[in-house]
Design brief:
heterodimer; A: about 150 residues; mainly alpha; Serine Threonine Protein Phosphatase 5, Tetratricopeptide repeat; 2 domains; two-stranded antiparallel sheet; 8 helices; 2 strands; elongated; B: about 475 residues
C-alpha cells in the first residue's frame, strides 16, 4: 500500500521538473549561457529571408548596405548555403513585409534586380510579393525564361 | 498565518515552498525581462504619458467610453517618470517581474504549505497557475503596465489578509486595496468578491466592519460610475469578440445579436466559465471543437482540454466530498475557503465578462482554479488509506494531469519566445503603425519623435530567439496562442 502511495506522490510532484529547469536557466544566465534565449548573428540577407525585421532595422541603422550580397546559411532559404542580396532573400518569406522595409531604407529595385525578384516570386508562387511588385509604377513583367534565379 | 514557533516541520515546509515559488518566478522573470512588449497599447500609452499631465490623464479617464480606470493611467505615469535616464523598458519590465514575484509569493502563502504532503502538491499548483492560458496572456502583454496582473495581486493580497489573524490595519488595507483595484480595472470588483467569499468561509482576518466598508466603497463606485459620470459599461458594438468558430467584428455582432444582445452576453458568460474549467472555448472561439471537426487536432489542444477536464473533475469530486462532510456536521475546513473563493470568483468573473470575452479577463478565476486544484490534489495525496486498486486507478489520470500541466507551463516559455520575435519585428515598423492610427502623434510633444526612436532602438537591439531554430516538435506540443 505504501508503494502505491509513493507512486502517487512521485507522479503528483512531477512538475517540480520546472524548478530544475528554472534553476538551470538562472545559473546559465549568470554564466552568460542562454540555452533557451540565444540569438545567432545574422547577415542582412539572412534576416530578410527570415522576416526578422528587428535585426534588419538594427543592421541598417548600424550601416549595413541594403544592396550588398551576403551569405545565407544552409537551412534558411535552401538546404545549401547561398549568396543573395537582401531583396532576393526576402522572397523566401513569401510576403512583401521585409521587402518594404528594405526599399524604405535604400534597397535598389532597378530593372535587373526587379527581374530576379519577380522571377523568384513567380517560381515560389509568392502571390503577395507579385501583387506588391505589380503596384510599383512603370514596371513591366519580365520574361523569366531568360532570367537566372539564385535558387 | 505563519507557522507556530517550534513547529519545525511546518516551518521547513513553508520555507521550502517559498524557495520553490521564488525559483519558478525568477525563472519566468528571466524570460519576461528579455521579451519586447507589443507595439499596440504600449507605444501609444507611453507617448500619452510623455505629453499628458496627471490631471489630464485622470480627467480623460473619467470621460471614457464604458471604462473608468484613472489609476491605471496614474500608475503608468508614475513608472514613466520614475524611469531613470530613459530606461523605460527596464523600468516597466522590472515592475512586471516584481508583480510576478508578488503573485507567486502570495499564491504560495495562500496555500498554507505546512507539511510534506502540501509540498508534494505545490509544484502541480504552480504549474497550473502559470500554465493556464488565462495567465499566459497576462505574462505576454503589458500596456506597458499589466493591470490584469495588478488585479491578481490585489485579489491574492485581500485573500491573504482575510486568512490571517484579525487586526484593524488589515481591515483598512483590504478596503484600500479594493478602492485601488476598482479604479484600475473593472475586474477589481473581484477583490470585493474575494472578501465576501472569505468571510463566508469563516476566515476572520477581516472583520464584518471591513466587509461593510468595502461594500460601501463598491456602492459608491457604482453610483459614481453609472449615475454621476454616466460612464456605463461596454456594449455589444464596443469590441470584436469570439463566437462559435471565429472572432466576429463589431458589425457582425450587431447583425447577429442586435435584436437580442442578451443572448450574446449569456454566451460570453458561459464561455468564460467553460474556458477556465475546460480550456475550451478560447476567448469565445470553440477552437478544439473546430480542430475536431476539421479532423486535425494538434496534440497541444488535446493536452489543454484533457488536463483541464481531469483537473476540474478532481476539484468537483473534492467539492462534493466536502459538501457531504459539511452535511454530516463536520465544520468548515480552512482550505474550504479556497474552494469557495474559486467558485465565487469564477462566477463573478464570468458575469463581468458579459460584453466580450478575452482569456486575460478571466485570469483571476484561472488563478483560483490552480488554488482549488491544489486543495483537491493535496487531499488525495494526504489521504491515509489508498487501496491498491484505487491507487492504480488514480495513477493514470494523475500522471496525465501532472505531465500535462508541466507541458502547459513549459508552453508559456515557448510562447514568450515566439512573442518576443514577433513583437521585435513589429517595432521595426512601428512608425507605420503610428502614422495609421495616430497621424498627428508628432505634434503632441516636441520630443515625441526622440522618445519614439529611443524606444524603438532599445527594442531592436534586444536579442530574441530565432523562430527558425525552434525545434518543430514544439509547434505540435506547445500551445501557440
Amino acid at each position: 500500500m505504501r508503494v502505491f502511495a509513493r507512486c502517487i506522490h512521485v507522479v503528483v510532484a512531477l512538475p517540480a521538473i520546472l524548478g530544475a529547469v528554472a534553476l538551470i536557466v538562472l545559473v546559465g544566465g549568470v554564466l552568460q549561457w542562454h540555452p533557451l534565449w540565444k540569438e545567432p548573428e545574422l547577415t542582412l540577407s539572412e534576416a530578410a529571408a527570415l522576416k526578422d525585421r528587428g535585426t534588419m532595422l538594427r543592421l541598417l541603422r548600424d550601416g549595413a548596405d541594403p544592396n550588398a550580397r551576403a551569405q545565407v546559411r544552409g537551412g534558411v532559404v535552401d538546404d545549401d548555403e547561398l549568396v543573395l542580396t537582401p531583396l532576393e532573400a526576402s522572397v523566401a518569406t513569401r510576403t512583401p513585409d521585409a521587402m518594404r522595409l528594405l526599399l524604405a531604407h535604400g534597397a535598389r529595385l532597378g530593372e535587373r534586380e526587379l527581374a530576379v525578384v519577380f522571377c523568384l516570386a513567380r517560381q515560389e508562387d509568392a502571390r503577395e510579393i507579385l501583387d506588391f511588385l505589380s503596384t510599383r509604377p512603370s514596371q513591366r513583367d519580365p520574361d523569366c525564361t531568360h532570367v537566372a534565379t539564385p535558387w | 498565518m505563519l507557522p507556530r514557533p517550534g513547529d519545525l516541520d511546518a516551518r521547513v515546509s513553508s520555507r521550502l515552498a517559498y524557495a520553490y515559488g521564488a525559483l519558478l518566478a525568477l525563472g519566468l522573470a528571466y524570460f519576461l525581462i528579455r521579451m519586447p512588449y507589443q507595439v499596440s497599447d504600449d507605444l501609444e500609452h507611453i507617448l500619452v504619458m510623455q505629453f499628458q499631465s496627471y490631471r489630464g490623464l485622470v480627467e480623460d479617464s473619467l470621460t471614457g467610453d464604458g471604462s473608468l480606470r484613472p489609476l491605471q493611467w496614474v500608475q503608468q505615469k508614475v513608472l514613466f517618470q520614475l524611469a531613470p535616464a530613459g530606461a523605460y523598458w527596464d523600468t516597466f519590465k522590472a515592475f512586471h517581474a516584481l508583480q510576478l514575484l508578488v503573485v507567486v509569493a502570495l499564491f504560495v502563502r495562500l496555500l498554507r504549505i505546512r507539511a510534506a504532503t502540501d509540498l508534494i502538491a505545490l509544484p502541480l499548483a504552480l504549474a497550473a497557475l502559470v500554465g493556464m492560458h488565462t495567465f499566459n496572456i497576462t505574462m505576454r502583454e503589458a500596456y506597458p503596465v499589466n493591470h490584469f496582473m495588478t488585479i491578481l495581486v490585489c485579489c491574492l493580497a485581500v485573500a491573504n489578509l482575510a486568512m490571517s489573524r484579525p487586526a484593524w490595519w488589515r481591515d483598512v488595507a483590504a478596503v484600500a486595496i479594493l478602492a485601488y483595484a476598482l479604479l484600475t480595472l473593472e475586474t477589481g470588483l473581484l477583490v470585493w468578491v474575494c472578501m465576501v467569499a472569505a468571510y463566508l468561509a469563516r476566515w476572520r482576518g477581516l472583520s464584518w466592519k471591513a466587509l461593510a466598508a468595502a461594500t460601501c466603497v463598491l456602492a459608491a463606485y457604482l453610483v459614481v460610475r453609472f449615475v454621476v459620470l454616466d460612464v456605463g459599461t461596454r456594449g455589444l458594438a464596443a469590441m470584436s469578440s469570439g463566437y462559435g468558430f471565429s472572432v466576429r467584428g463589431t458589425g457582425d455582432l450587431e447583425e447577429l445579436f442586435g435584436d437580442a444582445p442578451w443572448t450574446f452576453y449569456l454566451y460570453n458568460i458561459v464561455s468564460s466559465v467553460l474556458t477556465v474549467l475546460l480550456s475550451e472555448p478560447r476567448a469565445g472561439v470553440f477552437q478544439f471543437t473546430s480542430f475536431v471537426v476539421r479532423g486535425d487536432v494538434p496534440p497541444w489542444s488535446i493536452v489543454n482540454v484533457a488536463v483541464s477536464a481531469i483537473g476540474t473533475a478532481v476539484i468537483a469530486v473534492h467539492i462534493v466530498r466536502r459538501i457531504r462532510a459539511l452535511w454530516r456536521g463536520e465544520g468548515l475546513d480552512e482550505s474550504d475557503g479556497l474552494l469557495l473563493i474559486f467558485v465565487a470568483v469564477l462566477g463573478s468573473n464570468a458575469v463581468i465578462s458579459y460584453p466580450y470575452t478575452k482569456d486575460v479577463i478571466v485570469s483571476p478565476a484561472g488563478m483560483f482554479y490552480a488554488a482549488a486544484l491544489f486543495t483537491a490534489v493535496r487531499s488525495l495525496v494526504a489521504s491515509p488509506q489508498v487501496r491498491p486498486l484505487a491507487a492504480v486507478a488514480l495513477l493514470v489520470p494523475l500522471l496525465v494531469l501532472s505531465a500535462g500541466w508541466t507541458l502547459r507551463a513549459g508552453g508559456l516559455v515557448a510562447t514568450m519566445r515566439d512573442t518576443a520575435f514577433v513583437n521585435r519585428g513589429d517595432w521595426a515598423v512601428a512608425e507605420d503603425y503610428l502614422e495609421r492610427n495616430r497621424p498627428r502623434w508628432r505634434d503632441r510633444h516636441p520630443d515625441a519623435e526622440q522618445l519614439f526612436v529611443a524606444l524603438q532602438d532599445d527594442v531592436i537591439r534586444t536579442p530574441v530567439p530565432q523562430l527558425y531554430e525552434t525545434p518543430r516538435w514544439t509547434r505540435r506540443w506547445f500551445d501557440p496562442y
